[in-house]
C-alpha cells in the first residue's frame, strides 16, 4: 500500500506548488478514477463510520473543516460525497470555501454562479446553480463569485432557509467548509449542520492549531462527530507524506491513532 500511495502523492506533488494546485486543477477523485484501490476502500470505511456515528438521528447535513488551508478538506469531502452517492444516497456537495473554492475545478464546471448567487438573490433558483455530476446521485453546487463579505452572507436566515429547503430534496448535504482560522465561516456553518468533521493532516498541523480549531467549534456548540487523519506521518525517508487517510475517529484524537501506519 505504501508504495502505491507514495507514488500517487509524488505525482501530485511534482506538478506545482501544493497550496494552489487544487484551486487551479481541483482535487483527485480517486473514488471515481480508481474505486477498487485501497484508498477508495478507506473512504468507504470512513463513510460507514460516519453512518454508524449516528445511530439515533439520521445525519442530513455534514461539514468538513480543518485548522488551516490546504489540509485536505476538499479532497476528503469530495471523495466522501462520491462514496455516499455510490451507495444510492442522493447527495449534494456544496462549496462553502468561498475564499479558496475548488469544487468547480474538480468537477470541471463554471463558477459564475453558485452558493453566493443564491445567498444574494431574492429567489432561490437552485436549478441554475446545482449541477449533476457524472457520478450517479451526486450533484454539486460551486461557490459562485467571491463576495466581499462571505461570513456575513453565511450567517443569515437565508442560509438556514437554503439548508432547510435543500434537505428536502437531498438525502445528504455535504459542505466543503473553510478552515477554522482567522475567519468565522466554518464556525457559522458548524452551527447550521448536523455534524462537523475535522480533517487533521498529521505531521503538518501543529497540535495546538488543531486543538484551537476544536475549541472554536465547541465554543459555538458545533457538533464535531469525528476527525480524519489525512496524510499519515512521514515514512521511508522519502520526504513525502506517503500514507493516505489514517482513519476516522468518532472521538477527538482517537486512541487508535497509532494503528494505521
Ligand atoms: N492524503 C493526500 N495525499 C495526497 N495529496 C493530498 C492528500 N490530501 C490532500 N492532498 C493534496 O493537497 C492539496 C490540498 O488539498 P485540498 O483538499 O485542496 O485541501 P483544502 O481543501 O483543505 O485546502 C491538494 O493538491 C490535494 O490534492
Ligand atoms: Mg478546499
TrEMBL record:
Entry keyword set:
ATP-binding, Capsule biogenesis/degradation, Exopolysaccharide synthesis, Kinase, Nucleotide-binding, Transferase, Tyrosine-protein kinase
The highest taxon in the source lineage is Bacteria
- Name the catalysed reactions: L-tyrosyl-[protein] + ATP = O-phospho-L-tyrosyl-[protein] + ADP + H(+)
* Residue ranges constituting the AAA domain according to the UniProt record: 72-191
A Pfam family per the record:
AAA_31
Q: What is its EC number?
A: 2.7.10.2
Q: Does the keyword Transmembrane helix apply?
A: no
Among the entry's GO cellular component annotations, what is one?
Answer: plasma membrane
Q: In which pathway does it act?
A: Capsule biogenesis; capsule polysaccharide biosynthesis
Work out whether the entry's keyword set contains ATP-binding.
yes
- Which of the seven top EC classes does this enzyme belong to? transferase
Among the GO biological process terms of this entry, one is: capsule polysaccharide biosynthetic process
List the molecular function annotations (GO) for this entry. ATP binding; identical protein binding; non-membrane spanning protein tyrosine kinase activity
What is this protein for, i.e. what is its function?
A: Involved in the regulation of capsular polysaccharide biosynthesis. Autophosphorylation of CpsD attenuates its activity and reduces the level of encapsulation. May be part of a complex that directs the coordinated polymerization and export to the cell surface of the capsular polysaccharide.
Q: Name the family.
A: Belongs to the CpsD/CapB family.
The protein here is known as: Tyrosine-protein kinase CpsD
